[in-house]
Write the structure tokens for this entry.
Amino acid sequence: MMGPRPVVLSGPSGAGKSTLVKRLMQEYADVFGFSVSHTTRNPRPGEVNGKDYHFVCREEMEKGILADEFIEHAEFSGNLYGTSKKAVEVIRDHNQICILDLDIQGVRSMKRTTLNPLYLSIHPPSIEALEERLRGRKTESEESIQKRLAAARADMEISKEPGIFDAVIINDDLDEAYNKLKDVLSEEIQKVQASKEN
Ligand code: ADP
Ligand code: 5GP
């Protein structure tokens, strides 16, 4: 059973991926399932273990990687992040569209699997706007902000490579970006809705 085609959201940290995913999951609760990644970073205020991430220590995560429990994993800004096989399987079992939030290393790893997702990159309107959002979120240390901005510059260059993303969405006005995202996903949404009506 293949299930619906998964969707990978990538793009700089602070571009608005979680904000867009939360809106999508609110509007289409039954259609989408979020792949809950593992990470060794500390939870931010308001983040819930098992919902936003599975927050684990490095030792536990490395054990899981060695035991082949992960589809992909990467080191980002000094922490490990990874998608477990289980995270994706539970969503497929519910016949939902699996949404994965991955950095660029995760995108490259995913391309070596058989999952065949749609690859979308969410961009901020500018690096200056991104810095403002990261600071406005009040969740990152100065060091973490600088690391994220450096990674963002690299990300935005890489996303220009032909064929790497199916669509790039600029998240300037949130409503516009959300409507664009729904547009890109409309065919897959309709397919899942139709299959659930039967
Ligand atoms: P990501 O998941 O990509 O790291 P977030 O969704 O956490 O990014 O968004 C980063 C910050 O920017 C949050 O404080 C969020 O409320 C804010 N934000 C998201 N989209 C917009 C937008 N279109 N305009 C202004 N602020 C935004
Ligand atoms: P944050 O700490 O801001 O939540 O995430 C930092 C970066 O890690 C973001 O670029 C996000 O897309 C990425 N990320 C989150 N989960 C995973 C994952 O499971 N695998 C990979 N490769 N990247 C992830």
About this structure: The longest helix spans residues 174-197. Helices lie at 17-27, 58-66, 85-93, 104-110, 127-137, 142-158, 174-197. The chain has seven helices and nine strands.
